[in-house]
Specification:
alpha+beta; Alpha-Beta Plaits; 21% helix; peptidoglycan binding; SPOR-like_sf; transmembrane; 4-stranded antiparallel beta sheet
Length: 264
């Protein structure tokens, strides 16, 4: 007969079942061997833990357990046979010889110089004597009036000597100013700057020559003073180039070094 209360996951079948799967199997149930083994293992573990706990932990009032060698045994000395043998016993490493050098006596450096007492003065000290008392001088008598001497004839005073006129000094020759160095002549020149003072012009020329020493060998210097918009400028020129191509090569070297210039 068919069962209308079957579950949704029961495979469909048209044949009626010969037994009811929900009914228990009749007869004796199997013995739970796995449960019995688990209980026995658990009981063994509990017994082992109890035994180890009793052997390692003392109860209240029990004497502490003896660990290691007793103190009485440690105080007694071990027999000579038990002592470790020194392999170097009986060896004479440092032996004394008959001709051994005597012990060196330490030599100490002299101590710092002590200040000496000052020598006694050799110059005898002269004791100053008290000044002798002066003898009483006789009383001064009034002086007699002196007679006027006869007047001598007045002599004419000599005329004063005429003052000599100072001799004119020879005019000193003035030192001639040193001639300014002439700029080297050439077909072209390179202007390397226009500054506000001659000192800066010299500095600009030196820096330009130092930037290209090979091309500037034997070249001259020229400084031109220019008035522009009420300000004074000093143009610095490097002169003495044989051709315009040499001047352009020198200017190109300066531009590569980061300086401004142009060929004139």
């Amino acid at each position: 007969m068919s069962d209308h209360e079957r579950g949704a996951y029961t495979p469909p079948t048209d044949a009626p079942l010969s037994f009811d799967a929900r009914q228990p199997v009749r007869g004796a149930r199997p013995v739970p061997i796995t449960l019995i083994i688990s209980v026995l293992v658990l009981a063994g573990l509990v017994a082992a833990i109890f035994v180890f706990y009793r052997s390692g932990v003392r109860q209240a009032g029990d004497a502490p357990q003896a660990v290691g060698v007793p103190v009485e045994g440690m105080k007694t000395a071990a027999p000579p046979e038990a002592q470790p043998q020194d392999p170097a016993a009986g060896l004479q490493i440092y032996r004394s010889e008959a001709g051994a050098a005597p012990e060196a006596v330490p030599t100490f450096t002299p101590g710092p110089e002590e200040p000496q007492p000052r020598p006694a003065p050799t110059t005898p000290v002269v004791v100053a004597q008290a000044p002798a008392q002066r003898a009483p001088q006789p009383a001064l008598r009034p002086a007699l009036p002196a007679q006027a001497p006869a007047q001598a004839p007045a002599q004419a005073a000599p005329p004063p000597a005429a003052a000599k006129a100072p001799e004119p000094k020879a005019p000193e020759a003035k030192a001639a100013p040193a001639p300014a160095p002439k700029a080297a002549s050439g077909a072209a020149a390179v202007q390397v700057g226009a500054v506000s003072s001659p000192a800066l012009a010299d500095k600009t020329w030196n820096e330009a020559v130092a930037a290209a020493p090979g091309l500037a060998a034997g070249k001259g210097k020229a400084v031109e003073k220019v008035e522009r918009n009420g300000a004074t400028l000093y143009r610095t020129l490097v002169t003495g180039f044989a051709s315009r191509e040499d001047a352009q090569a020198f200017c190109g070297r300066l531009k590569a070094a980061g300086k401004a210039c142009f060929v004139r």
